[in-house]
Design brief:
Number of helices: 3
Structural class: alpha+beta
Order of helices and strands: EHEEHEHEEEEE
Distance between the termini: 26 Å
Number of strands: 9
Shape: globular
Strand content: 25-35%
């Protein structure tokens, strides 16, 4: 697994409120790669995502009852270059002591991803996203289909 983070996703209670904060309050520009359910912001060679908290927990196969001890409302992600690399990184993480939360699988947005939890329970998504490109050094660029 390459030592890099491609995406930090925040599970938010109210997506519209969060968008107003980042866009009107902080002056950030949303990427056209988002939609009504998820918003992305390009941050140099990585990105920040905003996604409904319950939906994020469901996607990672984690319980969410609003209890930070069960799910902290944040996931880290590493985008990789192929579906096969998703499975390879998940297997590597499991051998290293991670718990697989969600095995690699085709997902509704057109990519392939899975999740593992590190020894302290922090969820990592490993994803192949055909709409986001990685350069030779692993920097990610958001793009709209």
């Amino acid at each position: 697994m390459e030592p890099r983070i491609s995406l930090v996703t925040l599970g938010v209670a109210d997506l519209a409120r969060s968008r107003r904060f980042y866009e009107q309050g902080l002056g950030w520009t949303p990427s056209p790669a988002g939609n009504d359910n998820v918003t992305f912001y390009q941050l140099g060679g990585m990105a920040l995502g905003l996604f409904g908290r319950a939906a994020l927990a469901e996607d990672a196969h984690l319980p969410d009852a609003g209890d930070p001890a069960r799910f902290g409302g944040i996931t880290l992600a590493q985008n990789v270059r192929s579906k096969a690399e998703v499975d390879s990184v998940l297997a590597l993480a499991e051998r290293a002591g991670a718990r697989i939360l969600k095995p690699g699988q085709d997902v509704f947005w057109g990519g392939y991803s899975g999740y593992f939890a590190d020894p302290d329970g922090h969820p990592w998504e490993i994803a192949w996203n055909p709409f986001f490109t990685l350069d030779a050094t692993g920097n990610m660029t958001l793009s709209a289909e």
